Amino acid sequence: MPPPASTEHAKNAAPIVPQTELTLASKVVAITGANRGIGLGIAESCLTNGAAAVYSIDIGEAGDDFNALSKRFPGKLYAITANVTEEETIIAAIDRIISEAGGLHGVVVNAGRTHHKAALDFTKDEITTLFNVNLFGAFFTARAAAKAFIKQGVKGSVVFTASMASYRPNKRVPSAPYGASKAGVRNMTHTLAMEWAQYGIRVNSVSPGLVETAMTYWVPQQPDWEQQLKYYGGIPRLAKVQELGGAYVYLLSDAASYTTSIDIPVNGVIGIC
Question: Is 182 a catalytic residue?
Answer without folding.
Answer: yes
